[in-house]
Amino acid sequence: MERTGPMSHLDFWTGGSRSTMPALPLDQLQITHTDLKTGKLRTSPALHPEQKADRYFVLYKPPPKDNIPALVEEYLERATFVANDLDWLLALPHDKFWCQVIFDETLQKCLDSYLRYVPRKFDEWVAPAPEVVDMQKRLHRSVFLTFLRMSTHKESKDHFISPSAFGEILYNNFLFDIPKILDLCVLFGKGNSPLLQKMIGNIFTQQPSYYNDLDETMPTILQELKDIVLYLCDTCTTLWAFLDIFPLACQTFQKHDFCYRLASFYEIAIPELESAMKKRRLEDSKLLGDLWQRLSHSRKKLLEIFHILINQICLLPVLESRPCRGAGREVPDHLHRASSSALLSCSSCDNIQGFIEEFLQIFSSLLQEKRFLRDYDALFPVADDVSLLQQASAVLDETRTAYILQAVEGAWEGVDRRKATDAKDPPAAEDPNGVIALAEPVEGPSSHLENSEEDELSPQCMGAAAALGPPVGGVELDSLISQVKDLLPDLGEGFILACLEHYGYDPEQVINNFLEERLAPALSQLDRSLDRQVKPDPTPLLTSRHNVFQNDEFDVFSRDSVDLSRVHKGRRKEENTRSLLNDKREVVAQRQRYEQYSVVVEEVPLQPGEGLPYRGDDYEDEYDDTYDGNQVGANDADSDDELISRRPFTIPQVLRTKVPGEGQEEDEEEEEEAEDEAPKPDHFVQDPAVLREKAEARRLAFLSRKGYRHESSTAVAGSPRGHGQTRETTQERRKKEANKATRANHNRRTMADRKRSKGMIPS
């Protein structure tokens, strides 16, 4: 069988060469083969069902969860079949591979079964056997390579499919669809993100119809989210109603570790559902508002279910067994709302340690569930329950209780805790006997159910998100406004800011009350498109400024009048560098002052009748002439003229009158001095020509002693230019060029002078 282009079967008969023919895409390629019925050669398209091999691909099944040997063996056998089939598929040539992919339905079912049933990383599985892990890795790689090849339309310059035909093949044969692409991202995204991004990008590029499919899929995804929230809301409400009516079922629930599982589910599911709703804020605001309301209701019911379990399993048995220890102490309000018919019997008043231990164990297992602890503590303070246990038992483990309370406080880190306890707890009054009693009557189960249904979205339902903190500003306030505006883009920033200030800067409570139309009357009267007004800085700019020009003569902010004659705008035209240098007014003003230093008075003229002033050399009778005979300074090298003579006066250069030729003489003198001061050449280094002659003589003497042939310099010089060079000349020149660095010593005299000038060699 031969792969040819249209009419290329003529080459088969004529023996013509196909090397010069351009390669055709697979969708246009024709294959010449022998008809099995007639025995004649005929031409058919390369992509044809007849080219498909008869092979059955078995469906994939996930590995067993409990590692039963028989089930493991069955899984390994089936997985081996799948892996071998995929390896065979990947080894097929280009045309055979695409025929199998397009026309083999069992292959598509096999790949779909893997994407559907393969365990995800977040699934809970018992540690599988090593052979199961190896088989899963092999299957994972083979399936990924299969989808990768299916998404590549050009494997080489000779094996490719035209882009338009490739897109039609993918779309019309359902080789890829949006659910498959989503599963591929989940299964192979980690570690293969760049390759997977290129693969999916090529699919959407070659077939833009997938964008329309994705657009039609989004309402389905939103509907799935709605189904999840509705199912969660229905389940939570049903469980809460059942446990509230029949609390005796709490023991049965706790046998299956229901408290821990409930808290773990809350910690994982609630934040994810909230995040999913916020990401779809622009799709259907009315539907999202309804879903948000139902999710908030589900959150509250989950917390109340947990509280009912704690009450019935731990707190109410302790309260019934030791009522006397509660005198004089306030009993939490949520315990009074419980039905008295649901109290569990206790054999004796001393048998309460088991219930306390159960309470400590439950909360010790929940310490890592930070979000759940915050929301539960906001609605039902854990400190109240611990206080009740401290009243009931004198041997309560203070270390464990302190650790639990510290963990609950740690869960509030980074979140402003709500301090408004008056809105949650009814006022209490003290009777004459000193016992604290609630001012309002205790509600029964039925009234509690009704009130709970009416207050589905009370502030306590929001938990930690409803925390009331101090006023915020800056970037944090902008972030809160943006969080609300992302979900409600029609609202103005000024209206959102007013709502945040009213509800304690809690964006979730603002969104809740707005969607339920339960805003405060003051907020309902505001314009919902109100823009945010920038508050002016209370500190004026002029009083807060500080710079080097403050309070100077030109500071118009600190003085009323400024001398405008000293202000010049722009550059003065008459002033330039030459005129500035020619301005000698300052020199003339100082000339008279410096001329006074040149006046030396040798003789003072006396007027007739004036007495002679005292002179130091006049004769004095009391003069001490003891040392007059000593010759002071007689042996010094300095002459007496030099000691007693006055230094001649020198006019400063700036005041001198320029004499023609004086500057030139000074320059010549400076040049002569520079020549005299220049370092003299060091002649201890001999002439390089002499050194070369001596070295050549020593080398010739050495070679003559060793018996070597004398190398003639004429071999290096060679013949005149234009007459060609002999082989010996070329070799000698090459040797000289290669080895000249080993013998040369350039700039010796210059370097020697440099060393001497720096003091390395004595002069």
UniProtKB/TrEMBL annotation:
Stretch list, region Disordered: 607-763
Signal peptide stretch: none
Protein name: Activating signal cointegrator 1 complex subunit 2 isoform X7
Taxonomic lineage: Eukaryota, Metazoa, Chordata, Craniata, Vertebrata
SMART domains to which the protein is assigned, alphabetical: CUE
GO biological process: regulation of DNA-templated transcription
Listed Acidic residues bias regions: 618-627, 663-676
Residue ranges of domain CUE in the record: 476-519
InterPro entries according to UniProt: ASCC2, ASCC2_CUE, CUE, UBA-like_sf
GO molecular function ontology, one term from the record: ubiquitin binding
Amino acid composition bias (Basic and acidic residues), ranges on this chain: 677-699, 725-740
